[in-house]
Amino acid sequence: MAGNDWINSYLEAILDVGPGIDEAKSSSLLLRERGRFSPTRYFVEEVITGFDETDLHRSWVRAAATRGPKERNTRLENMCWRIWNLARKKKQIEGEEAQRMAKHRLERERGRREATADMSEDLSEGEKGDAAGDISAHGDSNRGRMPRISSVDVMETWASQQKAKKLYIVLISLHGLIRGENMELGRDSDTGGQVKYVVELARALGSMPGVYRVDLLTRQVSAPEVDWSYGEPTEMLTPKGSEHFMDEMGESSGAYIIRIPFGSRDKYIQKELLWPHIPEFVDGALNHIIQMSKVLGEQIGGGEPIWPVAIHGHYADAGDSAALLSGALNVPMLFTGHSLGRDKLEQLLKQGRQSREEINATYKIMRRIEAEELALDSSEVVITSTRQEIEEQWRLYDGFDPILERKLRARIRRNVNCYGRFMPRMVIIPPGMEFHHIVPHDGDMDGEVEGNEDSPASPDPPIWSEIMRFFTNPRKPMILALARPDPKKNITTLVKAFGECRPLRELANLTLIMGNRDEIDEMSGTNASVLISIIKLIDKYDLYGQVAYPKHHKQSDVPDIYRLAAKTKGVFINPAFIEPFGLTLIEAAAHGLPIVATKNGGPVDIHRVLDNGLLIDPHDQRSIADALLKLVADKQLWARCRQNGLKNIHLFSWPEHCKTYLTRIASCKPRQPQFQRSDTMLEKSDSDSPGDSLRDIQDISLNLKLYLDGEKNEDSGTLDNVLDSEENATDRKSKLENAVLTWSDGTLRDVHKVGSTEKADQNTSAGKFPAFRRRRHVFVISVDLDTITELLENIQKVFEAAEKEKASGSIGFILSTSYTISEIYSLLGLGGLRATDFDAFICNSGSEIYYPSLNLGDNPSGIPFVSDLDYHSHIEYRWGGGGLRKTLVRWAASIVNKNGKSEEQMVTEDEERSTKYCYAFKVKKPALVPPVKELRKLMRIQALRCHVIYCQNGNNLHVIPVLASRAQALRYLYVRWGIELPNMVVFAGECGDTDYEGLLGGVHKTVILKGVCSNARAILHANRSYPLEDVVPFDNTNIVEVTEGCSSNDIRISLVKLGVLKG
User: Does residue 623 sit in the same domain as residue 572?
Assistant: First the structure.
C-alpha cells in the first residue's frame, strides 16, 4: 500500500493546485518545451508514469467508497477514474508498440534469411564477421577511421596531393535560419546545432585544397519577422584561420550559402510543414546546379560542365531533396541524419502520452521516416557522429541491417556477386571544431591575476565574477556541467553525487550552466521541474557556497567558462543518460579540461581518441562521485588527461574532418550525366531547316536506339511484314531490334536527302529533333486511367483546349503514363493520332523515355519511336536486376486468396509488359493485395532498392529503379534538353497511381481534372503512411482544378488563369 500512499499524496497535491487536469488532458499531458510551468501536469505525469495500473484502480475504488457530499471528494473520485483510464491507455499503447517491434524483428530475420539464401555462395568467415577483428560492421577500426597525425607536415603532404583537383560539392540544409555570421542559434527549435554545423562544414570544405567551390543550399526567407539577411539569394562564407590551406582563389571559387525560394515567400515555415514544398526546392536547386556547372565549366573545365562530385543532404527533408537531385543529375549522394525520425517515434511511443496517429499529426513523423528511408536507398555514404547512432538508431530502419551490411561488405571485398543487393556505407566522422582562436593557459588563478608593468594582467571576463559570487572559496577546483535542465541530461544525479560525497564537497565546487532564464514560472514544464529539483537538492545537502547556477550567460561567454574551470584545475562532466555525440566534451578538451562522461553514446568514441578522462555509468551515483574525486585529487592523473586532450584534439579539427570527408567522397564511384550535349545546338534552335536537326543528332552522338519492347501489336501492319508472327518472343525481340538498327543506319544515310526538303510539317519530328526545344510551353498529360478509351478522351480535350497554339508549334505535348510503348502505339492508332503529335513519351511509370521518330516516307519498317538509352544509364543506379525479379516472383507467389480448400493467386508476373528496367505484375483483386508501403518495406529489408508503384487503378504493379519516376523523367528532360520546368504544365486526375504525389509539386504548373481517377484514392491511397494533404501543396497558385466533367473550354480557361494561354 506504500505505492497508494504516494498516489494519494499526488492526488491531494493536484486538488490543492486547482482545476488544472482539463488543461493537462487537452495537451495530451505533454510537458512541452513551451508555456508556463504547471504543477498539475507535473503531478499527473508522476502518477501515470510512476505507478502500476492496479494501484491507480485501487485508489479510484477507495475514492468512490469514501465519497461524501463535499465537492472535493467528488472531484477526487472523478480525477482518479480519469487518471486510471489514462494509465490504461498508456499501457495499451505500450503493448501495441511491443507487438509491432516484435513483428518488425521477425520480418527482418525472415528478410535476412531470404537474402542470404538468394546469394548462392556459402558464407565465409569474413561474411560472418569477427567480434575481435571487425570492431565495426560499418567501417574500419578506430585507428583506420581516425589515424593519428603526428605533425602538421603530414597534413601539408596530403594537401599538396589534392591541389590539382577542382571539386564542386553541394550541401543541403533546408529548415531553420541559416547565415554565415551572427547565427541566431536557439531562436527556435529549427535553428540549432545543425545550422552551426553545416555552415562551418561548408566554410571548412571551401578552404580545403582540391575543393574549388562549395554551395550550401537552403531556403530563402523574406518574412517580416526575420532579419533581411535571410532573404539574400547568395552569401559568401569568409574563411576563418585557414590561410594555410587556401588555394589560389578563382572567379567563382569558395564557399557560399545559396538561398532557393520555395514555399510561401513572406512566411517562415517550421520544418514539419515544409514537406509539400520539397519538390519546388528540388526544381529550383536543380536549376542553380546546372547553371553553376556551366559557369564552372567555362572557368576551369575547358567548356565542359563541372558537375558536383557529391550532393550531401542534412536531416530528413534535405535527404529527400538530395535523393531527387542525385537521381536527376546522376551524381553520388551523401547523407547525415542529425536526428532520426524512427528514434524519435520510439521515444515518444515509450512515453505513452500520444498514440502513433497523434504523433504523426503533430510531427509529420511518417513522412520524415519515409524521407530517411529514401535517403538510405539513394546514398553512397551515410555519415554519422558515433557508433551508437549506427547500432541503436539506424538499425531501426527497414533499409539498413548491420548484419546483412557486414555480409554484403565482405562479398564486395572479395568481388563476389551480391545479386542486386546494396547497402549504404556507414562512416563515422565526428563533427569538426574551430580551434585556432583557443589558447589554453597554464597556471592557476593567482598566477593569472598577477602582472607587471610591462604586461599588466587583463581584466577577468564578467562571467567569472557572475559564477564566483556563488562560492565561499572560489579557488577550489571547479566541476563544470554545461547542459539545459532536461531530465535526459541527468543533472539531478550529479548534484546528488556531489552532495553525498563529503570528500568531493570539501575539495571542489560545482558549477551548473543550465541555459538562460528570467523566472522559473516562465520556463517550460520539464525544465522548470528539473531546476526546482536541483534547488531542493542544494538545500537538502546544504550546498550553499559550493554550487553555482547563474541565470544568464551569452554564447560568447562559454569559452571563458571553460577557461575558468581549467584555471582552477577542475573537471568537465557530461552525465547524460545517452549522449548522441558530445560536442561539449571536445570543447572542454580544447581548453585543457579533463572529462568525466557517460559511457552511453558518442563519448565512448571521443574518449577512445582523446584518452583524457574517465567514463561513468550515468545511473550509478557512486561511480560519478568516485570518478570526479579521482580526477580532482590525483594531480598527476589530471595533468596527464589534460595533456592527452590537448595533444590529440586536432583529430576533431575541421581540416581533419574535411580530409576524412573528402577521402570518403573519393571512394565513391564517380557518376555524372552520361550524355554529351552541345550548348551550341541549343543556341541554334531557331533554325527552321529540317536537316539541322539531323546534323544535331550526329554532332552530339545521341546514342539512341530504336526499338519496341517486343510485344506484337495488331495495328502495326508494317511490323508484321518485318517479323514472322509465329516466332517465339525471344527471337521476335532479337529480329525486331536488328530491323530497327538497320532502319537507324538507313536514317543516317538519308540525312542529305531529308535535309534538301524545302518545307516540312512543323508538327513532325523531321522539322526539329527533339521538337520541344522550340516550344514555349510543354503540356505533360499524366492522367492515370485504367482504360485506353478514357485516356484518349482526356487527350483530345487537352489538344482541343490548345488547338491554335498546337497548330502554330508553340506548344508541345508529352504523354506520361504507366503503359508500355506498344500499348501507346495501339492507343495512337485507336484515336487516330500520330506519334509526332507528341514530343516525347514517358512510359512504364517513368522507366522509359521515347521520342517520335523521323517521318521518312521510305522507311520500310514504319517504326515511329526512338528510345533514349542515355536515360537508362541515368536511372540504373542500384537496380537489382535478376536478384530483384527473383524476390518479386517469390513474393507474388505468396499472395493468395484462400477460399475454402482452393487458393487463387492474386499477383502474377506479366512477362509481356516487363522490360529491362520495369518488372510488371498483374493484380487480380487490388483490395486483397498488401499496400505499396508493405512491398516497399519488404524490398528494403532485403537490401533491394527499387520504386514500387501500383498503377491503372491497382490492376497492375510496376517495380522500377529507385530513382526513376514520371516526375524524375521530367527533370531528366530538363537536364538533357534544357526544357525549362516552369514552362511545363502537368495534367493529372483528382488522384492516380501511387506515384501521383510526385507529379503535383514543383515549379511546373498543374491542372487537376476533378472526377478523373477519383476512385484511386480509396483503392490505392487508403493505406498510405501519411495523407496526401501533408505532402501536396494544394494551396499553391501553380495548381488549379477543373470541375468534374469539364470540357475543352474549361481546360482552356484554367490555362489562361495560369498565364499559359491568352484569353
Answer: yes
